[in-house]
Amino acid sequence: MITKKIKIPTIGIGAGINCDGQVLVTHDLLGLFERFTPKFVKKYMNLSELILKSLQDYKNEVIQGQFPTSAHSFTIKEEEFKKIQ
Questions:
Q1: What's the chain's Rg over C-alpha atoms?
Q2: How many domains does the chain have?
Q3: How far apart are CA 81 and CA 3, in angstroms?
Q4: Structural domain for 75, as ranges
Q5: 20-63: pLDDT as tens digits
Q6: Is the dihedral of CA 57, 62, 65, 71 positive or negative?
């Protein structure tokens, strides 16, 4: 009703399909917040599970001494190292 009566675009968040455009918060769309999902949100993915697993894997590898390895580290040439000692 409002969209048809005014000359400027209307943007909705949870207002239905009769707006000129739609807004959806990226964090909601990607499923980054688990505790509450607003009625107007459609989760296209559940990234919170992937992020949590990634952080747990990282923590475990650091604790176990599996990360970082030489593949993830820079080295310094011996002559350069001597200059800073």
A1: 25
A2: 1
A3: 68
A4: 2-83
A5: 999 999 999 999 988 888 898 999 999 999 999 999 999 999 99
A6: positive
- Give a three-class secondary structure readout of the chain: CHHHHCCCCCEECCCCCCCCEECCCHHHHCCCCCCCCCCCCCCCCCHHHHHHHHHHHHHHHHHCCCCCCHHHCCCCCHHHHHHCC
Q: What is the pLDDT of residue 35?
A: 86
Here the tokens at position 37 are 């999902």
pLDDT at residue 34 in the model = 83
Q: Which residues of 2-16 are buried (b: 16+ CB within 10 A; e: fewer)?
A: eeeeeeeeeebeeee
- Give tens-digit pLDDT for 4-23: 999 999 999 999 999 999 99
